[in-house]
Amino acid sequence: MTFELPNLPFDKSALEPYISAKTLEFHHGKHHAAYVNNLNNLVKDTPFALMTLEEIILKTANDPAKAGIFNNAAQVFNHTFFWNCMQKNGGGEVPAEIAKAFGGADKFKEEFKAAATSQFGSGWAWLVKDKTGALKIVKTGNATNPLTSDQVPLLTVDVWEHAYYLDYQNRRPDFVDAFLNHLVNWNFVLKAL
Ligand code: MN3
């Protein structure tokens, strides 16, 4: 199996002014593409070449000898998931089921933003469903994602600097606000709920 870079689910300029076409050109066309290419090179002629992305992530997590494969596989998964979490004219009202789990829409946004802005260095903030069905907000460093903690990802935002630096420079909180208020594709999030 060869992994492929999926097309963005929207036009490159569809998320402006919140995420510029320039950012997506680099983020999707260079960063995401590089993770796909690296993964294909690393798994070539190994048993991993026959596995799904999710299988590779679960089998290589926490194995220092397989860190390169894990990092690239997880980043391919994370970025594809992130693109699906956004749409033109997104944001808007937080779905009632989610708002309720956090004591209100504002509390949900506050908690999600706190996770995204307090992630030290590169990483991701997530809304997840755990084994008991409870909704939780978590943050992960670098390529790590909730699959390895037996959690179902529902929503994510990329807080690596490459995700926002061209548009927001060091203002990560402003990027996260724009994501929550103008970009989230709640229909996608609700599919896995
Ligand atoms: Mn990224």
Provide a descriptive summary of the structure in words:
It is a single chain. The protein has 193 residues and is mostly helical. It is built from eight helices and three strands; from the N terminus they run αααααβββααα. A three-stranded antiparallel beta sheet has the order 2-1-3, with helices on both faces. A hairpin with a 5-residue loop joins β1 and β2 (135-141). Residues 27, 31, 79, 158, 160, 162-163 line the site of manganese (III) ion.
List keywords for this structure.
binds manganese (III) ion; mainly alpha; 193 residues; 3-stranded antiparallel sheet; globular
Task: Write the topology of this structure.
Blueprint: H1 21-43, H2 53-60, H3 67-84, H4 96-101, H5 105-118, E1 123-129, E2 135-141, E3 152-158, H6 165-168, H7 172-183, H8 186-191
Helix pairs in contact: 1-3, 2-3, 5-7
Manganese (III) ion is lined by residues 27, 31, 79, 158, 160, 162-163.
Largest sheet: 3 strands, antiparallel
Overall strand count = 3
**Distance between the first and last residues' Cα:** 30 Å
Overall morphology: globular
Counting helices, strands and paired strands, the structural category is mainly alpha
Overall helicity:
40-55%
- Catalogue the unreliable spans: none
Number of alpha- plus pi-helical segments: 8
Strand order of the largest sheet: 2-1-3
Radius of gyration: 16 Å
Average pLDDT metric? 97
Bound molecules: manganese (III) ion
Query: Could you tell me the strand content as a percent range?
Result: 5-15%
Task: Give me the strand/helix succession.
Answer: HHHHHEEEHHH
